[in-house]
Fold this sequence. Notes:
Elements: E1 2-4, H1 6-13, H2 22-33, E2 37-39, H3 41-52, H4 62-71, E3 75-76, H5 81-89, H6 100-112, E4 115-118, H7 121-125, E5 131-134
Parallel strand pairs: 1-2, 1-4, 2-3, 4-5
Amino acid sequence: MILLDTNVLLRLYAGHDADLAPAAIRRIDQANALGQVVVSPLSFFEIGVLNQKKRLPAEIDVAHLWLSASTNGIKEAPLAIPAGIRAASLHDEGFPTGDPIDRLLVATALSEGWELATIDRAILNWNGPLQILDARP
């Protein structure tokens, strides 16, 4: 199973997939054909907050983004208590950022045994037990 980080979700479904590695897009497409790609509700929250702060090149309609992703087979990842507990302990595991969304996405992937598709350098450089799909071009 592959969990899409917010930055990968945005690039795939907001028309910026040229900003992702072609090999990563192929892996995601192959996994999606098998029903094995998920996104977290946290990513939609994060995009909404980025919209409010005007930190995206253009405002993203989060409801339309979810409709587009789900219509293409992307599934919803759970928001589970074990992931919340794990997210709180990531600092003790040397996780390099205090960003709560990053921590919860990473903890979700860890708790579920999933691979995380990301372009986030801080996550990519972490030496923790996370399975990572490096989607950088």
